[in-house]
Amino acid sequence: MMWLVTFLACIGLICAEEPFNHKVHNGRVIGGHDAKPNTWRWQVSMQYDSYNDNSYYHICGGSLIDAFHIMTAAHCIMSMDPSLYRVVVGEYNMYNYDGSEQFLRVERIVVHPGWNGDLGKGNDIAILRLADPVYDNGYVAIAELPYPGETLPHGFTCTITGWGLIDYMGNVPAILQEAPLDVVEHSVCSQYDWWGSVALETMVCAGGDGAISGCQGDSGGPLSCYTNGAWRVHGVVSYGPAGMCNQYKKPTVFTRVSSFLDWIFSVINSA
């Protein structure tokens, strides 16, 4: 089990992009395609300045959940110093400035109190409070959220979006990617030849066909599902398999947003 914990903590989707010998924006959802501009308007890019020299690079995705707050994954938090982060909303092409972007400083970071660094224990969720509010420039939208405790049926098709790696070699197309992922219900995802005991009921599994998946750099980003007449963020990208991210019976695993609504709103209201 200790090996599994190490495996989950450091490989695949799990880790935010650590700084290394070059600064590049991460690539795309594996098996995805370019999203249409101005479609997934609650998607954000979470960026980090590892040398504190105003040189930011993408590490994770996130979702805009009100004018001041971003929802992301707890494992994306590489430092509790908010000055090292910025959030970009209205982003589409990482390499171009299109005039749709807003670059926002982070004022406060709140990590779920149940997060202990072990992805198999869940609670992989965090909220960033922005120093200034997002304004409606026509390229942003506040994410709709699911109902408390809401679950999705097996085979329900959702969409993953992000700028995560296309493969383990690190190809890096700059445009926001999207791909369909079918939900794998907990009774299946928790089977021993799928994710076993590290798939909890507070998580959503989606994918596992061996072709389409999230990957490193997608972490923290949304799983958007059309339910009850609206696109809603049902999941926060949490973990996936080692090596190639798109492995058969190893779906992308998301923090289930409907399990954490009380905590999310308590953080927002405390501000």
From TrEMBL:
Keyword flag Hydrolase: yes
Domain of life of the organism encoding this protein: Eukaryota
Entry keyword annotation includes DNA damage: no
Pfam families listed in its UniProt record: Trypsin
Record-annotated Peptidase S1 domain positions: 29-269
Signal peptide (from-to): 1-16
A GO cellular component annotation in the UniProt record: extracellular space
Keyword vocabulary terms for this entry: Disulfide bond, Hydrolase, Protease, Serine protease, Signal
GO MF term set: serine-type endopeptidase activity
InterPro entries xref list: Peptidase_S1_Elastase_sf (IPR050850), Peptidase_S1_PA (IPR009003), Peptidase_S1_PA_chymotrypsin (IPR043504), Peptidase_S1A (IPR001314), Trypsin_dom (IPR001254), TRYPSIN_HIS (IPR018114), TRYPSIN_SER (IPR033116)
GO biological process annotation, one example: proteolysis
Protein name, UniProt field: Elastase-1-like
